[in-house]
Write a structure and sequence with these properties.
The chain is of the alpha/beta class and about 170 residues long. Helix content is about 40%, strand content about 10%. Helix 1 crosses helix 6 and helix 2 packs across helix 6.
Length: about 170
């Protein structure tokens, strides 16, 4: 699936349990789209490679970190990525290389593989390709992870914006 004049661009962010990193990325990317007046042109979702947290809210520390930066993560409910998500998505953004490897093994064909990218690969200033998992860390790590996600999401949005913006 690719975005057209009538269809929004669909991006899904993927981490392990869909309660920390990928919900942050989903919310931040949607904020960039809304701020640019393109909220109706983008569908930003997230999912996990595992099913442990399906149906749960984002981790409370994720919600709090987002809130401290002016975002609302309270509506999130965790879900698991499925092979059908390849067909429903234009871009699948992995939060670290382990997620990227898993997504590549789930890909049904080369076109699915081509949709997968690492979030940090969009940030030229990044010192790593992996967004660390803050789950077993303290509150400060959630803020650090969010800052990484904001920077990379800004770069990703800037790269995609010309293709998302309708022709005038």
């Amino acid at each position: 699936m690719t975005a057209s004049a009538d269809e929004p661009f669909r991006v899904v962010f993927v981490c392990t349990g869909n309660i920390c990193r990928s919900p942050m990325a989903e919310v931040v990317f949607r904020w960039f789209a809304d701020a640019a007046g393109l909220g109706d042109r983008v569908v930003s979702t997230s999912a996990g490679t595992g099913d442990w947290h399906v149906g749960e809210r984002a981790d409370q520390r994720t919600i709090q970190a987002l809130e401290r930066r002016g975002y609302d993560g309270t509506h999130h409910r965790a879900k698991q990525f499925t092979p059908a998500d390849f067909s429903r998505s234009d871009l699948i953004v992995a939060l670290d290389r382990s997620h990227e490897r898993i997504l590549h093994t789930w890909a049904r064909d080369e076109s699915d593989v081509d949709k997968v990218a690492l979030l940090m690969s969009f940030d030229a200033r990044a010192s790593t390709l992996d967004v660390p998992d803050p789950y077993y860390a303290g509150t400060g790590m959630f803020d650090e992870v969010l800052a990484m996600i904001e920077s990379a999401s800004r770069s990703l949005f800037r790269q995609l914006e010309p293709a998302i913006r309708p022709a005038t």
